Amino acid sequence: MYEFSYHKSASVDGAVEAMNKAEDGKFVAGGQTMLPTMKHRLAAPSDIIDLGGIAELVGITVEGDSINIGAMTTHAAVAASGDVQTMIPMLAKLAGNIGDPAVRNRGTIGGSIANNDPAADYPAAVLALGATVKTNKREIAGDDFFTGMFETALADDELITSVSFPKPTAAAYMKFENPASRYAIVGVCVAKTDDGIRVAVTGATPCVHRGKQLEEALKGEFSSAACVGVDVPEDQMNADIHASAEYRAHLVKVMTKRAVDACT
Description:
Blueprint lengths: L4 E4 L3 H10 L3 E4 L5 H6 L7 E4 L9 E4 L2 E5 L4 H6 L1 H6 L1 H7 L5 H6 L2 H7 L6 H8 L2 E4 L3 E3 H4 E3 L2 E2 L7 E7 L3 E8 L6 E10 L2 E7 L6 E2 L1 H9 L24 H19 L1
């Protein structure tokens, strides 16, 4: 790990001020990605701004037909929340199957979404549920937030304060996971929302995305059988030591069918 300056902020404004003063600063939430990357010397920020002391970023509140989750709320807290379990049980189940207990008790929803790992789980929920990402500057629709591999719409001095998830009529998330890390080799989230059927796919491509062809098929008939004839292009799939592009394309349909069956 290279030398860096450490700052622990007590407020959002303080964290942003520290970032603006830094030559090449980085916000750190749970540190589950940034710290290992720094230890391997794959990243060398000049300053680390720790968000762990900002109380206003922690907590879960029900706001009408939506549930608002503070950016520094851990995966374990989301999984254990009675409000989340009641309003969006799929989201509680998703959070409870991220990584292992150590990761779930340190990792945060805001950190996961801001990092936008191609195989992360939360981004699929954000897209499928039509969530809104709230920052210190604005509100960003989930559809506009994820822009590429490890890339988002966030500016350098912008940080997530909370994520608002509207309650769906029904929703389910199914993933074929790496047995060691529990990252999604392919994960699919299907939701019945006020905007209609929404399908989000993670792990399969360089960035989480909406499965528009699957959505169209399910609008006509909401059943696993409707997915059979949908073409999932192999040339857009990731290929690595865990799964070929062909296998991932196959898994997209399999996980979608399972999610649909779990919704009905």
